[in-house]
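re: ur question from yesterday

yeah so i grabbed the chain u mentioned. its 290 aa long if i counted rite. heres the sequnce exactly as i have it in my notes:
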Amino acid sequence: MSPVVKHFFDPNTYTFSYVVYDEIERVGVIIDPVLDFDVPSGEVSHNSAEKLLAFINKEKLSIEWILETHAHADHLSDAQYLKSKTSAKVAIGIGITSVQKTFKGVFNFPESFATDGSQFDHCFRDDEVFMVGSFDVKVLSTPGHTNDSVTYLIGDAAFIGDTLFHPNVGTARCDFPGGDSHMLYLSIQKILNLPPDTRLFLCHDYPEKAREPIYQVSIEEQRAKNIHINDSFSEQDFISFRKSRDKQLAVPKLLYPAIQVNIAAGVFPSEEGVQQRYLKLPVNMVSNDK
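ran it thru and got these structure tokens back, copy pasting raw so excuse formatting
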């Protein structure tokens, strides 16, 4: 069975967000929504979320879940704004607890900051299943890029987060805290061993010049053409490549703002002083880790 999938692309962060729904029952989910955040000014807006809401209202959909594939390091989540407009539950994989424990120390969060995932309405475990309309949604744990990475399998559609990109772009990095190239290899194999007609929906695309962003690829394309991992790569080939490649990558420009907000289900830190919220920027954090 095939759910209806509507994609939305944010060119500022190269992120795909999705509205996925049962066409008969008019029930659906939002996956990986983007909060518009201007780094120089610190201004936030909800233009990207409003596009999703306009579509949802036009199609007369009831949204039951806002699903995160992981705590993103390259964009801020607008889950809370969308929750306020739809009353949907916000969810992520249970691995978020490990990510929270790691970054609570990085940002020197207060003792009151919970690291049990309770900021989310639900934390899914591997192989957990829930219903959206007439569709079973199966949650597959797919760590490696991050501890909390999951894939949502809805009918013949798999929403794979950052695990795999377009075949011309390759695979996710593994150098964030909790990243592991061996685990990523195993997670990729789990995805590539799904039924061959499974549609793979990407979280990002970074198109080469003259190519439009592509949000959906096939398992066959990934097996044959992915530049980082295809059927000609051994596990050791991939691990060696990934470790070498990751040493060359720059820190994502939204890493620290995004992580602070996303591990708290899209909630900004509490107000300080004159009703003002602040995001922290650790000094020399990357160089101190080396």
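noticed a couple things. The mean pLDDT is 95. also Residues 47-58 form the longest helix (12 residues).
anyway ttyl
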